[in-house]
Amino acid sequence: MHTQPNTLVLFDIDGTLTEPRKTISRTVLIALRELCRYAEVGFVTGSDLEYIKEQLWPLLNDPIVRINCHVLPCNGTKYYVPYGDEDPKLQEIHNVSMKEEIGEKTFNRLMGALCMLQGEIVQEIEYEVPLSGHFIQNRESMINWCPIGRDAIDSQRENFKALDKLYKIRHKYLKILNDYIDSSNAKLVVKLGGNTSFDIYPRGWDKTYALTHYNAHEWDFWFVGDRCSVDGNDFELFSLLKPKGRAFETGGPEETVEIIDFHILKELQQEINI
Fold it and tell me: Is 234 annotated in the active site?
């Protein structure tokens, strides 16, 4: 093994390691297993822990990856590490509360505003896209708002994605939400999450939060994500590491494998003179 314990390669999940809401493929798993010979890997996502388990279960049960991985849900405001050889589990290292951070009054007003906006957006899309399940998920350290419902199937998500591309629905409501936050003086940030939702969290709790769990003088960070534009939830971490040549924007899992094989692995191997 040639592991460099001071190197951590962070990955977004949806649109980066997997197709949205899908399980990781064997091709990506093999690439990550090889990467774990030279670095540790971390999975930093806006999703909560249960979705990570669903999507990455083959990875978290792989003996090589498991001992070299860091699980960072909700932009890294939660932090887990695997333990145990048989029936591996995840040990919680860190967790924070959005309600405690911004105050119950501000939190409740935000929830009320989201319910009002849900009513407005339903009138725009209900005849084009059927709605399924609850729309707002409290992830403790962030709120996820999915206007078409969290139980939407693939066809519903694709319909909304096409509608959004045509009419810029999410960008319209992104502006409305940002105007609300500005007018209420709430110290919150709104980002586009995946293809169908919004992530809302306290200022500073973007994916750069994940780095606070490590001593910056002892670790060398890399990052791969797919939502790297200013409205995307990968923007801050991508922008921080890009000037160092350590951040990559990907178009999907296949391109991520190419980034691992032809960029990250190549440089790490050169650094240790393989």
Answer: no
